[in-house]
């Protein structure tokens, strides 16, 4: 098994894509630290795996991240793999934009000029800060702590979860797109530095992924996403997890600072 007894840390690991990543690592023999803010879900999920422990962690809080990695060091004395997966979409603002987007679609179908989306001007300071704190600052805080442990070993792998919105700007979620684009820039910068110590850093920028969040969208928006995807469907969590494990494995030993975007043909670069 490719990750036998390797210490793998996954943030936002209790649900969604993070849970799929954890299950994939577990199947390959890894010892897992499942980091999440949701204690109840996290503890229950970790118990379903063979070699996992749950550690409550708010990635937007540098002190919380530091405590989490101290616990990892106390238990295993090292981190071999970090997957920075924790994130949010911003349900309130996403729901507001979703409603306006559906109205725009109806306007076009009815031959009317669509009204403005007003996504940016509707954002509050707190919504902007929270998105950046969790995605971009959280990725920095966790990477910093992981690097301190990996440097001693002279090896390691970090995989940062971005989004296709970080590549093409998305539509109607400027704070999310900015945070995800920031992760890509951070990945490239850290990768050039860390590889000199044997640590590889890469990123994954998925397109539309079948998830509880996506299934909560209106049928019109889901159809719009699929229509924009030449493959004709959303990715599964397991498909994203397979790519993450590849980047974390020795099979990707010469990949440094790369961004791979599994998006079903939505964006080809």
From TrEMBL:
InterPro entries: NAD(P)-bd_dom_sf, Sc_DH/Rdtase_CS, SDR_fam. Keywords: Oxidoreductase. GO terms for molecular function: oxidoreductase activity, acting on the CH-OH group of donors, NAD or NADP as acceptor; quinone binding. GO terms for biological process: fatty acid biosynthetic process. It comes from the Bacteria. The keyword Magnesium does not apply. This is Dehydrogenase.
